[in-house]
Amino acid sequence: MKNWPTAFLDPEKLKQRLLACSALDIILCSEDWLRRFQFYPHWDEGVAMASISNGAGDDMFVLFTPEGVLVKGFDHESEMSPHAREDFEVWPGIYEQVPASLLSHLEDEAFTKDDVTFCLWREPGDTVWKTGDIHNPQQLDDGSGFLLGMIYDLAEDYVEWAEDYYEMELSLDAVTHIYRSLFMSETIILELNPERNVESAVKELEEIGILVQRQSQG
């Protein structure tokens, strides 16, 4: 195996960022199937899962497990996709060196394990992300730059994407506040999306583990 070649968030920051993006999507869009970000804090025993989908056939799953963190991405246009290969097999090297305890979590059919163009992971105690020894002499694009780039590290980048995707103007201050602290209140919900049903949004936010300050609480 080898170190992941580009800078990427550490596991705790990654989890916080995905949770923030999922919370924002809940506020901005009442239809969960239209959202890009989903977060499931209790996907399995001791396992939290986040998913990202652009609705065009590209997706990514991030699993936070007792055995470490695993990221599996699939760019459907990549030449490294199994669907672009004559044998329809996973590209050599993607999974062979993933720790078995981590890889086993992908057996759930929800993760479409064989639809993969890149994979990276960190076990407890690791200080860098790892990936397999991928045989890719032609330097084919695995889609990782595109897909990992969907995890917006800056509030400004999320706002730029969301304003275009949801066709609405957003308060950068409100998004920045959520990015920094995951603090949520009914006031912030309405500031970001005045048309959102607050009770419905609060219920979904609490389901992913975010407490919401009610107006009556002051």
Morphology call? globular
Strand residue percentage: 15-25%
N-to-C order of helices and strands: EHEEEEHEEHHHEHHE
Please give the radius of gyration in angstroms: 18 Å
Observed structural traits:
218 residues, alpha+beta, two-stranded antiparallel sheet, 9 strands
Quick recap:
The protein has helices at residues 11-28, 100-103, 144-148, 155-166, 172-181, 186-192, 198-207, and strands at 2-3, 37-44, 47-53, 59-65, 68-74, 118-122, 130-131, 184-185, 212-213. It has 218 residues and is an alpha+beta fold.
What does this structure look like?
The chain is α+β, with helices and mostly antiparallel strands. α4 (155-166) packs across α5 (172-181). A hairpin with a 2-residue loop joins β4 and β5. The radius of gyration is 18 Å and the shape is globular. It has one domain (2-217). The chain has seven helices and nine strands, in the order βαββββαββαααβααβ. The termini are far apart. It has helices spanning 11-28, 100-103, 144-148, 155-166, 172-181, 186-192, 198-207, and strands at residues 2-3, 37-44, 47-53, 59-65, 68-74, 118-122, 130-131, 184-185, 212-213. The mean pLDDT is 94. Strands 2-3-4-5-6 form a five-stranded antiparallel β-sheet. It has a two-stranded antiparallel sheet with strand order 1-7. Helices cover 30% and strands 19% of the residues.
